[in-house]
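Please, structure for the following, as tokens.
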Amino acid sequence: MAKTFDVGIESLVSDGTRAPAEHQPVGRQGASVGLLPLPLRAARGAAVREEALGRDASIGDAAGAAGKSFFLETFGCQMNDHDSEKVAGVLQGRGYRAVDSPAQADLVLYNTCSIREKAAQKVFARLGDWKTLADGKIIGVLGCLAQQEGEEIFERAPWVSLVCGSASYRKLPELIAQLESGGRRVTGLDLDTDETFETEITRRDNLLRAYITIIEGCDYACSYCVVPHTRGPERSRASDAVLAEARRLADAGYSEIQLLGQTVNSYRDPSPRGWKFVDLLRAVAAVPGIRRVRFTTSHPNDFHRSIVEAIDEVPELCDHVHLPVQSGSTRVLREMLRTYTREEYLEKIEWIRAARRPISITSDVIVGFPGETEEDFAETLSLLDVARYDAIFSFKYSPRPNTSAMHLPDAIPEEEKSRRLAVLNERQRAIQIAANEKLVGQSYEVLVDGCHPARTQWGGRTSCNRLINFTSPRVNLLGEYVQVKITRAGPNSFAGEHVT
């Protein structure tokens, strides 16, 4: 059963096709939103589209009659991915249709990230392309960069008409209506609002996995991080609303859900029920039809032993934890305002490693933070040896506006940051190769989410988030859970064969 569903009223699938790629995943893994992958959509989409639209099928008719089109490109994290699904749903509800090229669109939107300078530069490069080509199009900037820069975007790119942060997406129809009525520039820059959770339509761009945002914003004040400024203070979503969305997703045929939040495990139910994160985690896993529940991103300060116990006890909870450490040096962690020491972090790693289920662990690491000495960097390298992560996401420190670290002395030269990043990645690569080789011969359940037509291979992820590409004598495996035996290991993925 294909999925074309979501919040409030049922969502719309798009009507374009996506060009085949070497590995074509099911749903949105690339940069632009609007197109569902051909294999499942062609095989299963039509009947479910009609069923899912139900009484709201007239929206699809309105989209065709209106003749308006939009292109939406997304930068950044999974929360931005999900925000783009919300934006696309809002636009389709207003009568816009998605297209796969900005040149074809009446409305061109960039949903942006500002966590690092490079991401911001990419967006302004995209905007620069329209300096002489806007030609009556509405050009808009959404997301974190929009919230961070505000109306200054108009100064840097006068051809931009719309600047809207993530908390204001429900206002998009109103903002676009102002532009369509002759308005030149509009903004939506609210921050502290619960309305960020709910939109009338969310168009799901992945047919197999669905996101649910359970908490927005952040109350921590990490000295390098711009999120509290761009996403605002923590606001948790009522547990009843989360569970209702999970049940609707299950009814639509989804079996895997990922709970999202900048600090997802800081969740505190604002309703009288008063649940903590682990209570919500168990409740979502108990929804009939849900087979896998993931969550990201956790803050170490709010990662409690009860989360590990829940993963041990509830098979539907995926055996994977992403727990960002950022640095292996307590001194640097203190400068980062991370609220924990190296020893306190490693204690939590010990909880995870002691679980009855083998839980995979991934992390984020920053190198080149101001004042980071060779001794500090060596402590980070040694932490990799102790933690034995299954994977890391590593970054060079990037000064960001409105952060206290921006004004710290002893900046590390860019060349030295690059050197440290290369050393870090090489150390982690060796750890992953050694760990992955030990998994050869083992079998895992894989949710098949893509195919490699040229190599006649399928691809998918295990509960512990390992990517396996495998051969099979069967056809039409997309969306199925299958057993796969690992036959070969690389540093970042595996090859295998379908156990039939």
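The chain has 15 helices and 21 strands. Residues 282 and 418 are 42 Å apart (CA to CA).
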